[in-house]
Amino acid sequence: MPESAASPNPNPSPTPTPSARKLSVMLWLVATGFFMQTLDSTIVNTALPAMATSLGELPLRMQSVVIAYSLTMAVMIPVSGWLADKLGTRRVFLGAILVFTIGSLLCASAHTLNQLVLARIVQGVGGAMLLPVGRLAVLRTFPAERYLPALSFVAIPGLIGPLIGPTLGGWLVQIASWHWIFLINVPVGVAGCIATAIFMPDSRNPDTPKFDVPGYLLLVTGMLTISLALDGRAELGIPQATVLVMLIVSLAAFVAYGLHAARTPRPIFSLELFKIHTFSVGLLGNLFARIGSGAMPYLIPLLLQVALGYTPFEAGLMMLPVAAAGMFSKRLVTHLITRHGYRRVLVTNTVLVGLMMASFTLSTPAEPLWLRLVQLAVFGSVNSMQFTAMNTLTLKDLGMGGASSGNSLFSLVQMLSMSLGVTVAGALLTTFTGLIRHASGSSVIPAFHATFVCVGIITAASSWIFAQLSDDVRRTAKKTDPSERA
Questions:
Q1: Where is the Major facilitator superfamily (MFS) profile domain (predicted)?
Q2: Given CA atoms 15, 21, 23, 25 in this order, what sign does their dihedral have?
Q3: Which long-range contacts link 57-63 to residues 24+ away (Cβ below 8 Å)?
Q4: Of 210, 250, 268, 292, which one's alpha carbon is 20 to 30 angstroms from that of 178?
Q5: What's the first-to-final CA gap in the chain, in angstroms?
Q6: Shortest CA distance to 114 belongs to which of 37, 49, 61?
């Protein structure tokens, strides 16, 4: 994830070049921080039923544990780069590791769902700053000719984290307890704090502009109220009238930010970005298409464990075909875009992703294992191609002037849509569970089937956004940042 829009200049002042040993250790620090951040985005999913049993909650009402982390990260993204400019990269990176580690310890110590959610918020505050600030330190320390290999090195653990997260989470739950998915962060965090204090170079921007506090508060208000409105009715029992008021407040906050940004000299995110057609379409497409994609890592492990009787470790293993097929399909989408253009590829593939989500209505105890594995692999493949195509479309025409602000806004939208995906999935699943159980008995499988159909429809419908592209938009010649997450 990129640094905040508040830090457009990656090297505002000359800094002494550290020794080769310090540079090597710093790269490992940043890479490890990215790994911890991405691992904790997925490791929790397979552990939710075990957490629910331990905390005396229903497994289908645990979505707030996932939402709290991703939504907090979305909220903190705009401020991370500004803090690094103002306080220095070493101090902020050290603080990020410390807060993330304390949050992990608090998660492992939680005895109630509310305590766990609060601890995940603390963990998310630290996690949100690990990569943006670490990457900023790399950009300000390494010479320009070494940027690409350095950022590529940092990006690799970020790809490994989501790949092994569900399986590692299921394995730890099965051999020990769910507490260990958080406790494994503690020794790594302690070592990271010590190494950061010794090896991380420090840099800051003495000309850091004033932070756009009113704009930031408007954005945060909009993000929080829309999440509470969507999740509050199902999980918190908030009355319908209150939910409606929250939705109105959310809309008003986003509109107010647009008016504020139009008359503010240096807003967090400039409205000029939306004059770039590919960026506007890509950003809106990411927001809505990723709702379904954000729901699936939450829904699939729950389906396997709660409805189909898989153990946590088995459920984690079943997620490997999704990740493996996704990695192998990334090269294919580049060829397809070059040949057919973004519009045709994204419209077609978005519909395919929606259909594959809806295909999980086939999931029953009688479904053959080979068919389930093929289904997961095909979903992983088209979902990965969707991410790659959307990412490159969104970033390809930003240029140098809008790269920092556009990247930061794009990262915020990614995390917000992940949070909304779990929010929508949890609300749908809770609603359908109540309706179907009341009508036909105790089985939760039909509720899962109905939820998969709904998220599939939401995703397929977002293809209309990509249909607004012109046919001649082809593969970008600009190389996107290798540390950009799928």
A1: 26-474
A2: negative
A3: 57/113, 59/302, 59/305, 59/306, 60/302, 60/306, 60/426, 60/429, 60/430, 60/433, 60/444, 61/235, 61/426, 61/430, 62/113, 63/231, 63/235, 63/298, 63/422, 63/423, 63/425, 63/426
A4: 292
A5: 10
A6: 61
- pLDDT tens-digit series, residues 44-85: 888 899 999 999 888 888 888 988 898 898 888 888 878 887
Per-residue model confidence (pLDDT) at position 6: 39
What SS3 class is residue 3? coil
| Tokens (6 digits) for 59 | 């497994």
Residue 206 backbone phi and psi in degrees, to 5: -65, -15
The residue among 285, 303, 305 whose CA lies nearest residue 432 is 303
- The DSSP code for 211 is P
Euclidean distance between CA atoms 5 and 208, whole angstroms: 11
Q: Is 215 exposed, middle or buried (0-12, 13-18, 19+ CB in 10 A)?
A: buried
DSSP string across 163-195: HHHHHHHHHHHHHS-TTHHHHTHHHHHHHHHHH
- C-alpha–C-alpha distance, residues 123 and 73, integer Å: 9
Place of tokens 């989501």: 162
Q: What residues contact 377, with CB distance under 8 A and at least 6 apart?
A: 321, 322, 324, 325
Rounded Cα–Cα distance for residues 340 and 333 (Å): 10
Q: Which helix (H) or strand (E) is 117 found in, with range? A: helix 113-141
Q: What is the pLDDT of residue 176?
A: 87
Segment 247-269, tens digit of pLDDT? 999 999 999 999 999 898 888 88
Please check whether residue 413 is in contact with residue 308, taking contact to mean a CB–CB distance below 8 angstroms: no
